[in-house]
Amino acid sequence: MLGEYLWIVVAGGVSSFIAAMGIGANDVGNAFASSVGSKALTVKSAVAIASVFECAGAILMGSHVTKTIRKGIADYECFEDEPEIFIYGCFCVMVSVASWLFIASYFEMPVSTTHSCVGGMIGMTMVTRGYDCVIWYIPTDSFPWIGGVSGIVISWFLSPIFSAIVAGSIFYGTRLLVLRKENSFDKSYWSFPVFVSLTMMLNTFFIIYKGGKGIGFDDLSAVESVSIASLVGLTSGGIIIPFIPRMKKRIIDQTNPEIIPPIIPKKEKPTKGIQKCFHSIKENVNYNIDDLKVDKVKRIHDASEKFDEKTEESFKYLQIFTAICDSFSHGANDVANAIGPYAAIVSVYMDDGVMSDRVTMNKYGYAILGLGGFGISLGLFLYGYKIIRAIGVKVCCITPSRGFSIELGSATIIIIGSRLGIPLSTTHCQVGATMGVASLEDFKKCSGINWKIIWKVFFGWIITLMIVGGSTGLLIAQGIYAPTENNQCSNRTDI
């Protein structure tokens, strides 16, 4: 029945890949901002980690059931009589999402990928099926007891606030018990196994609970998942103890380097044509974020509290470890969500128009997830530095201890939110956690935060639903309401 719409499957694959690149540039760039901003990772290292672990997480653990109707925003039953309208609408959603993510990245606005897709689904549903087919509000059995679009709006406020509280509390405790002590370097290594255990426990629970269906853990209860995660966390903390003296010696050697002759950089030969393109890409990957520390940004960095250099170095290991775990978890979950519209297109097409509220990607799952994982890595490689420098440098001063607190606080709220079914955004959590840590520089005045950047970020969050929803509506209206061959407007929704 849908054989004539094969072009939507092909075009949808291309647009899905481009959308994945936009997610890599914006969403993943935001996730790595604290690691790069604190110098725990370089942009090149972040790209390398994302390339491996985003794809690995997507392919190995992301092949679980993907929701085709994003977060219960649209009533799929409204499309049962005309599935071709639905798959064309999903194609328009991906085009709009891809366009908006690149535009937002250009203006250094980290926006929510999930909310972008939600906005697209709202626009598509309202234009094709009307206001009543959008699930604006639906009661749920768990906190916050509200689903649909209303739940998404509530998450705008919940996720940044809760992340700010948790991340700020982690940094406050770390600063009080470790960073401000005279023997902070020694204390940092006493606390190192504890932080490793906690980090591994949280990330293991996240992987098991959210990605378990891909590795045979789908029948485990929350208690069993917590037990396994606790065992893995405690074991990891114990394993790391024998390596602490070696790590301590390495940091001492790094912070007391021998004097070596300066390295004179080679003059680069002029480039032409395609070489200039690759030269530009190389510059982006090796981007020096410190070049941006000017004027107000520099004042914020200079005014921030400084801690012992060796102590800060010890937190780099934790940040790198957290970045790897977060990247794998992101690939296992958010990549599957990112390619959800395309998975829906393929599933409906292969099932000859049969609609369902949930879609299993079957034998095409690995190829689709691999496509999304590769696109995300490529997007971070080409354009991720824009968001990294905005959140990792311009918002506030981020050091390894601050960056670790940001990542751990953000991950904690994401895990709790996932368990409770709250529609949280990883982007909102990351930005909220960054603000929570930065506010401790001067809690009364919050002078450690660059509010110009923050207000721009908030503005981007607010307009995301409207822009993606409006552009999706325009795209699909052009297709289904275009004049017919007789120059008369169609009276039915026929592509």
Radius of gyration, whole Å: 24 Å
What distance separates the N and C termini? 14 Å
- Report the mean per-residue pLDDT as an integer: 78
**Molecular shape:** globular
Can you tag this structure with a few keywords?
495 residues, Phosphate transporter, mainly alpha, 2% strand, 68% helix, 18 helices, two-stranded antiparallel ribbon
Structure description:
With 495 residues, the chain is an all-alpha fold. It has one domain. 68% of the residues lie in helices and 2% in strands. It is built from 18 helices and four strands. It has helices at residues 6-31, 33-37, 43-61, 83-106, 113-129, 149-179, 184-211, 222-240, 244-255, 274-285, 295-303, 309-338, 340-350, 365-383, 385-394, 400-420, 426-438, 451-480, and strands at residues 66-67, 138-139, 146-147, 358-359. It has a two-stranded antiparallel ribbon. Strands 2-3 form a two-stranded antiparallel sheet. Helix 1 (6-31) crosses helix 14 (365-383) and helix 3 (43-61) packs across helix 12 (309-338). The radius of gyration is 24 Å and the shape is globular. GO terms for molecular function: phosphate transmembrane transporter activity. It comes from viral metagenome. It is found in: Membrane.
Write the layout of secondary structure elements.
Elements: H1 6-31, H2 33-37, H3 43-61, E1 66-67, H4 83-106, H5 113-129, E2 138-139, E3 146-147, H6 149-179, H7 184-211, H8 222-240, H9 244-255, H10 274-285, H11 295-303, H12 309-338, H13 340-350, E4 358-359, H14 365-383, H15 385-394, H16 400-420, H17 426-438, H18 451-480
Antiparallel strand pairs: 1-4, 2-3
Helix pairs in contact: 1-4, 1-12, 1-13, 1-14, 1-15, 3-12, 3-14, 4-5, 4-13, 4-18, 5-18, 6-16, 6-17, 7-8, 7-12, 7-16, 9-12, 12-14, 12-16, 16-17
